[in-house]
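Priority: medium. Attachment 1 of 2:
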């Protein structure tokens, strides 16, 4: 775990060499942004203890989208803490198990190979978890101080979250920063590629300085400028 900004911490939860991140927001209570792959509750709890807080203080979990590397440990977190889960209405039935997730369809050979790799390492399905609050654009999660930003494309109900107090933007899989290269969603299996590009353009309008990714390294400063450059490159 490492500190990103005041009250914000990155928890690295890699699986077989694939970088996966969740994030801890610490205020009067604690909130998580995503939960990583299955079997990571103990690592999340240990991260909380590193900042001398009690894991039972986790009261909210903000979910960017339903993919297993983001909700894999959600059911365990809820079982251990009773935290309330926040997600977009389009993601809620996929997270709860009411609907089966749509199959990932790669737009290139490399993306199809990545999809096959995730199947190989066992990322097939997560234990269902109830979504307590279905949230949409501009809703603010009281307590965590996170503003909801709907960023469809990678999935229909994908969300980003802005922690206004620190200027930290959590983009989930709307973008990635892997191998020191800022890009759109990795994997080339977006449900709607045009919408994914439009969401990056939308995020470039957000007043932020630091960007946190589901996959890849944090951009500690100059985040909005970097997003603007990416939006221009992708939409130009």
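Attachment 2 of 2:
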């Amino acid at each position: 775990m490492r500190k990103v900004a005041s009250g914000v911490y990155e928890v690295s939860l890699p699986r077989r060499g694939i970088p996966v991140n969740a994030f801890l927001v610490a205020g009067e209570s604690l909130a998580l942004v995503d939960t990583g792959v299955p079997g990571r509750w103990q690592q999340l709890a240990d991260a909380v203890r590193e900042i001398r807080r009690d894991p039972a203080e986790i009261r909210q979990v903000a979910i960017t989208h339903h993919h297993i590397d983001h909700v894999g440990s959600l059911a365990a977190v809820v079982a251990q803490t009773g935290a309330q889960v926040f997600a977009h209405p389009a993601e809620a039935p996929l997270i709860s198990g009411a609907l089966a997730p749509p199959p990932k369809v790669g737009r290139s050979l490399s993306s199809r190979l990545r999809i096959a790799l995730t199947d190989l390492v066992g990322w097939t399905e997560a234990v269902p978890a109830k979504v307590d609050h279905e949230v949409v654009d501009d809703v603010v999660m009281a307590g965590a101080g996170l503003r909801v930003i709907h960023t469809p494309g990678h999935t229909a109900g994908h969300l980003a979250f802005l922690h206004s107090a620190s200027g930290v933007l959590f983009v989930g899989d709307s973008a990635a920063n892997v191998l020191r290269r800022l890009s759109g969603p990795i994997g080339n299996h977006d449900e709607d590629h045009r919408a994914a590009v439009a969401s990056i353009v939308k995020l470039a309008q957000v007043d932020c300085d630091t960007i946190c990714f589901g996959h890849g390294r944090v951009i500690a400063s100059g985040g909005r400028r970097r997003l603007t450059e990416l939006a221009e490159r992708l939409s130009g």
